[in-house]
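Hi R.,

As promised on Friday, here is the backbone we talked about, encoded as structure tokens. Could you run it through your design pipeline when you get a chance and send me back a sequence?
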């Protein structure tokens, strides 16, 4: 059955080489997924070789773990390893038919990245962005062919989370949308098509939970109390454990975007921002249960 709003799947274009811009945590997680599931060459790039190397190391470590756990045979592991390559030369993207970016969540940076890559890639290539809450249409403002732009939003941890949000802008054409839906399916993900609105669907809901948890912290409720209080609701993770997983910077950015778009409905927490400045995991866990904020976090908040 065709998902709501999906165009005819016959329109989907084949993807024979994937180009990923960014080699950070999200990018390297989905680079591995593309290689494993599509079995096509995957290129990653970043600002400098050391960032590219870090991404490749992360991917290699994940492949080792999957092999150890018996999820990849030795042959498969070798094949997947050989498919992912890193480069700082975007010229190598000339034959990629699917390009996706996961660079810093700043509109200008993403616009710049696409303005640079568009003249290099084939005319028919799909351009995707993994933005969590920025306007996909605005990200494509400097493209000469914005009809081939689509949002393709993964969730952390990429290997496990079953969903991709496919974001259609008013300009996205049917072939691009059909290709995005086909790629999601090949990746083993279910896809929902969402409008290009701040936070799409998932982050609009999650930002409420995270924002209110941060507000409780701002109001003096200790973090472990918030986590414990929410446990009976049955979330797979408490709100702070989740913030720690997605990254404090990313979480603060999502809150800012939502509060900027809907000031009367969302809350940008000062404590969340103070902790995001530290840019590191800040939750201490014991036996899989969140215990407290880390020492660095408490120092930052003067607790
Ligand atoms: N990479 C690969 N596999 C992972 C993984 C990772 N980082 N983390 C966990 N897994 C796998 C484990 O290996 C395990 O697989 P198995 O059952 O085959 O052995 C399976 O996931 C379950 O893991 P665990 O048993 O260790 O732990 P849990 O049962 O507690 O599950 C969890 C961990 C899947 C992360 C679960 O806690 C969860 O679903 N958390 C919520 C995550 C979530 O909501 N993510 C969305 C964040 S929002 C976002 O990303 C958007 C952004 O824009 C902000």
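Update: got your reply. Pasting your designed sequence below so it's all in one thread:
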């Amino acid at each position: 059955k065709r998902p709501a709003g999906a165009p005819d799947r016959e329109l989907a274009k084949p993807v024979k080489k994937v180009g990923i811009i960014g080699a950070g945590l999200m990018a390297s997680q989905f680079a591995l997924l593309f290689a494993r599931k599509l079995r096509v060459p995957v290129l990653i790039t970043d600002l400098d070789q050391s960032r590219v190397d870090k991404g490749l190391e992360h991917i290699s470590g994940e492949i080792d773990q999957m092999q150890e756990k018996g999820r990849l045979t030795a042959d498969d592991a070798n094949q997947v390893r050989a498919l992912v390559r890193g480069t700082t030369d975007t010229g190598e993207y000339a034959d990629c038919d699917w390009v996706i970016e996961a660079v810093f969540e700043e509109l200008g940076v993403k616009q710049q990245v696409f303005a640079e890559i568009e003249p290099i890639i084939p005319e028919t290539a799909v351009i995707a962005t993994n933005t969590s809450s920025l306007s996909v249409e605005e990200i494509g403002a400097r493209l000469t062919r914005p009809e081939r732009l689509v949002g393709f939003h993964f969730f952390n941890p990429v290997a496990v989370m079953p969903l991709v949000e496919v974001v259609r802008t008013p300009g996205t054409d049917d072939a691009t949308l059909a290709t995005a839906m086909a790629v999601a399916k090949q990746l083993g993900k279910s896809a929902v098509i969402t409008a290009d609105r701040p936070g799409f669907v998932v982050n609009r809901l999650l930002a409420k939970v995270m924002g209110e948890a941060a507000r409780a912290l701002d109001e003096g409720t200790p973090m472990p109390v918030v986590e414990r209080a929410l446990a009976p609701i049955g979330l797979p993770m408490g709100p702070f454990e989740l913030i720690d997983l997605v990254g404090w910077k990313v979480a603060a950015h999502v809150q800012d975007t939502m509060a900027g778009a809907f000031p009367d409905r969302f809350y940008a927490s000062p404590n969340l921002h103070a902790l995001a400045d530290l840019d590191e995991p800040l939750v201490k866990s014991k036996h899989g249960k969140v215990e407290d904020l880390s020492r660095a976090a408490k120092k930052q908040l003067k607790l």
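One thing I noticed while checking it: The first helix runs from residue 25 to 38.

Thanks again,
M.
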